[in-house]
């Protein structure tokens, strides 16, 4: 957050404070009947997150207290960390927890090169037909 600070000569200076110190600590929700522990939560959200259940030691508090830095130290890859934290926020907001599959990569690539790759592929198809 930015805050104005007045110096001795009256000029105001903006100071950037760490968001970490100003955020309200999240509460730890209680386990539900469908999700009684950390390993079940990781299994329900999918994307092979259940393989990291040992890192959490099946502790419900660890699941909600650890931030991305701690998860990185435990050896959890970046995409998995982001996905787990996303699902934890949904659980805190009492939203339904469902596994979200990874998106399928396009056959022709990204939007910048799609036309070019599709044209080359069609040209190859025409060559193969001859």
UniProtKB/TrEMBL annotation:
The keyword Mitochondrion applies. The keyword Mitochondrion applies. It is found in: Mitochondrion. It comes from Maudiozyma saulgeensis. Residues 38-94 form the Small ribosomal subunit protein mS41 SAM domain. It comes from the Eukaryota. Keywords: Mitochondrion. Belongs to the mitochondrion-specific ribosomal protein mS41 family. This is Small ribosomal subunit protein mS41.
